[in-house]
Backbone:
């Protein structure tokens, strides 16, 4: 794992946007795996400023709450629309995000995997990391699911994400998420982490052996992961 240690959130965002820019320049019809949450917002802002040509790019988002309507301002679709889709020239047919409105979840998950395969696979996957070490919504558990699936959110994730909702009761209790092997199939992965709340998860990622209680430790088996983090998240190692 390579580590880019940054002095600020802005620097994390700029470094991450540069890697995406390089990916699009090298392969204008690349497939990007994208994340939501606070970590990538600055990166999306920077990408929007760069005036890159996204017309050949395909995107797959990691996850979506379930159930949730697309037009709910807390849906991940809404988030992506606001922070990226509406600001670059991505073609609507090339945008993919699990549907929080579907009625047949199993089918939705199966078809999502098939679409990723059919696209040729993800060239560059962007990840954030939960305080409990989750990636996507692969939460700590005795065993981890490999493919796209419906999952229960843990109490700690519901509490952490309640900052975006009127109350904790409004946070959906489930989500559709790419699985661990979906994520690990990406050719390159960049993981963004900022702030001291992430220090425990980053320490575990860098020090611990692979274990399902810190799902991010699974990234250790991937040959091309870049961790872009600030000193607060990195700690004084
Ligand atoms: C979001 C996602 C989550 C977040 C993680 C960190 O699509 O998959 O794993 O990356 O919860 O969230 P933030 O960046 O808000 O701290």
Residues:
């Amino acid at each position: 794992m390579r580590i880019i240690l940054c002095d600020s959130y802005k620097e994390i965002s700029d470094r991450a946007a540069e890697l995406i820019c390089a990916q699009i320049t090298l392969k204008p019809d690349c497939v990007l795996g994208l994340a939501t949450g606070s970590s990538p917002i600055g990166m999306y802002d920077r990408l929007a400023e760069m005036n890159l040509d996204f017309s050949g790019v395909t995107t797959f988002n990691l996850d979506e709450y379930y159930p949730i309507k697309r037009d709910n301002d807390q849906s991940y679709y809404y988030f992506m629309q606001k922070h990226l889709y509406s600001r670059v020239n991505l073609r609507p047919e090339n945008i993919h995000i699990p549907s929080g409105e579907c009625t047949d979840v199993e089918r939705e998950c199966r078809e999502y995997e098939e679409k990723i395969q059919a696209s040729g696979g993800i060239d560059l996957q962007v990840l954030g990391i939960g305080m409990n070490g989750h990636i996507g919504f692969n939460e700590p558990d005795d065993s981890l699911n490999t493919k796209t699936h419906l999952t229960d959110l843990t109490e700690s994730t519901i509490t952490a994400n309640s900052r975006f909702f009127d109350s904790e009761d409004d946070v959906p209790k489930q989500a559709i998420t790419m699985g661990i092997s979906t994520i690990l199939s990406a050719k390159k992965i960049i993981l963004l982490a900022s702030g001291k709340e992430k220090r425990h998860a980053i320490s575990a990622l860098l020090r611990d052996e692979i274990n399902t209680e810190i799902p991010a430790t699974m990234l250790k088996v991937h040959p091309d992961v870049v961790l872009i983090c600030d000193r607060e998240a990195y700690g004084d190692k």
